[in-house]
Amino acid sequence: MNLSLKSGVPMNVYFDNAATTPMRKEVIQSIASVMEECFGNPSSTHAFGRTAKTHIETARKGIASLLNAAPQEIIFTSGGTESDNMILNCAVKDLGVTTLISSPIEHHAVLHALEALQKVHQVQVAYVKIDASGTVDLDYLEALLKQDDSKKLVSLMHVNNEIGNILDLQKVGELCHTQGAFFHTDAVQGIGHYTFDMEQLPIDFLSSAAHKYHGPKGIGFSFVRKNAGLNPFIHGGAQERGLRAGTESVHNIVGMHKALELAYQDLEQERTQVLELKKYFKSSLLEVFPTAHFNGLSGDDLSSTYTLVNVALPIAEEKASLLDFHLDLKGVACSKGSACQSGSSSGSHVLNAIQTEALQSSPSLRFSFSIFNTRQEVDYVIAALKEFVA
Predict the structure, then answer these.
(1) pLDDT tens across 242-299, in order?
(2) Catalytic positions
(3) Under CATH, which number does the domain 25-265 receive?
(4) Distance from C-alpha of 184 to C-alpha of 40, rounded to nearest angstrom
(5) Between these two residues, 1 and 49, which has the higher pLDDT value?
(6) C-alpha atoms less than 13 angstroms from C-alpha of 261 in its C-beta half-sphere
(7) 180: left (phi over 0), alpha (psi -120 to 50) or beta
(8) Contact 143, 154 (CB under 8 A)
(9) What class does CATH assign to 5-17+267-389?
(10) Side-chain half-sphere exposure of 58, counting CA atoms within 13 A
(11) How far is the C-alpha of 166 from the C-alpha of 134, rounded, in Å?
């Protein structure tokens, strides 16, 4: 049954799961339990410290097992941004990388880190070409890799956080390794939503964040291929194999492990559930806006992630400025491009890179879904949009 805004049933609808996800109850319970019962410093040698350390190493082994990696290859960080920065900085500082190759539609955690490295260390930074759908030109990437004999690292994200495009990690990794380059992927939008076999994938470094798959904020991990040769990124104690000093956030690490475990426990069933919701949203939206344009590959169920759509709506520019305000008043949470850019007047760098001038004058919104969303919520959002244009 379609839910009308006139039904008198107010709703709060959260369709901004690409920005962050609500924690699962089981994750909250595991975090609360550790916070209450396990307050020891993991670096202490007494029983309290040993108990905390056991929690950390159990989580490390559990996460490694889910990704078919070695436990020593999992390095806990504060999240995706720190992980990206750590890997890119250490590649230059420790591995002798002098050329960094990326794309213009990466997350700013990568793009701004590249800009800083270019200024401070005078490394060369090159960007692959992308087509109008945001797809990486692999022939151009190969040409960049063959351009000279400098030590190179390629950093390309697995799933684009704004338009949902999925990168072929196997193909890109093989291309990098054939040319003797390191390969790093920002997999913040991919981990917990897709399976990873790190034993088979030709990936040297990977970044992730727990809050993208119903875990806590402020915690993530880097995958660092064993014997990669990285030195400490944060100096201090010997935590995280000496790479990342600082007392570990035990409760968050345990919560992250629990969230990832639950994400992969029923992955196929939950993926099907969310994909069906995405399809229903698209078809319902096109009934109201037949000429709506799905940005990037987000309208393609095979080439983009099942968790989001990014759509340019045929709404007049003078009226478009009120759309965000209208949806917010109706209790609808979505995102204008990337949530990391909210409040920015410059717009989305991803959409600016791929959209035509005509599309850039239309409002683009990102709607992202999770297992906690329903068809009733889709009906409500569609009704809110319909009311706005009526």
Answers:
(1) 999 999 999 999 999 999 999 999 999 999 999 999 999 999 999 999 999 999 999 9
(2) 340
(3) 3.40.640.10
(4) 34
(5) 49
(6) 16
(7) left
(8) no
(9) alpha beta
(10) 13
(11) 10
Q: What is the mean pLDDT of residues 206-234?
A: 96
DSSP letter string, 82-125? HHHHHHHHHHHHHH---EEEE-TTS-HHHHHHHHHHHHHH--EE
Which residues, other chains included, contact 370 with Cβ-Cβ below 8 Å and sequence gap of 6+?
Answer: 17, 21, 22, 214, 274, 307
- Identity (one letter) of the amino acid at 228? A
Provide the sign of the torsion angle of the four alpha carbons 22, 25, 27, 29, taken in this order: positive
Amino acid sitting at position 330: K
Characterize the bridge pairing of strands 152-155 and 74-77. Answer: unpaired
The pTM (predicted TM-score) of the whole model is 0.94
Contacts of 236 (CB under 8 A, 6+ apart): 245, 246
Q: Is 338 strand, coil or helix? A: coil
Answer whether 205's CB lies under 8 Å from 156's CB: no
Nearest to residue 365, comparing CAs of 377, 382, 387?
A: 382
In the chain, residues under CATH classification 3.40.640.10 are: 25-265
Q: 388 pairs with which residues across the strands? A: none
- Provide the CB-side half-sphere exposure for 244 (13 A, CA): 24
